[in-house]
Write a sequence for this structure.
């Protein structure tokens, strides 16, 4: 299965303290490791539940290109050792918002334990620009490369 997104439009925020009801929302465990990153393009492996993917992302900030291909568990396991030292683990809660939007709140584990971020994906830049985030979202991180998963996987939480 191949999912090709011409553009992924999303905004990311730092969560100081998630509201209790957000933690009651459905979640998935995610293991993510990076094979390559040159600052503009990254190639990552992701295990989300029992499904495995290899993903290519291009660009930074609010709008990025993304191509995701589902791979077998055996292919994932063969490539996973190459991500050693460049991984994140997180629990992703899906929280319904107004206007049919979904907030994806990540609670990080391992070296990033205690870090919470939330992302919202939009159908257009106009929708993104009109979005008024709930107060619990906190400081906006969109475009802040220090908070990109691949940077945190390599260097730990931003100081």
């Amino acid at each position: 299965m191949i999912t090709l997104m011409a553009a992924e439009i999303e905004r990311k925020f730092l969560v100081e303290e998630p509201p209790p009801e957000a933690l009651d929302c459905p979640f998935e465990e995610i293991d993510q490791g990076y094979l390559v990153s040159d600052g503009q393009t990254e190639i990552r492996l992701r295990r989300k539940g029992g499904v495995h993917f290899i993903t290519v992302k291009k660009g930074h900030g609010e709008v990025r290109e993304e191509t995701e291909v589902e791979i077998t568990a055996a292919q994932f396991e063969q490539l996973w050792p190459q991500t050693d030292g460049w991984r994140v683990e997180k629990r992703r809660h899906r929280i319904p918002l107004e206007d049919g939007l979904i907030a994806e709140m990540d609670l990080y584990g391992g070296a990033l334990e205690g870090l919470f971020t939330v992302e919202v994906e939009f159908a257009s830049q106009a929708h993104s620009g009109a979005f008024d985030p709930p107060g619990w979202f906190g400081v906006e991180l969109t475009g802040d490369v220090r908070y990109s998963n691949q940077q945190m996987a390599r260097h730990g939480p931003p100081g």
Summary: Strands lie at 2-14, 27-37, 41-48, 51-58, 63-71, 87-96, 102-108, 116-122. Helices lie at 20-23, 73-79, 125-130, 149-155. The mean pLDDT is 93.
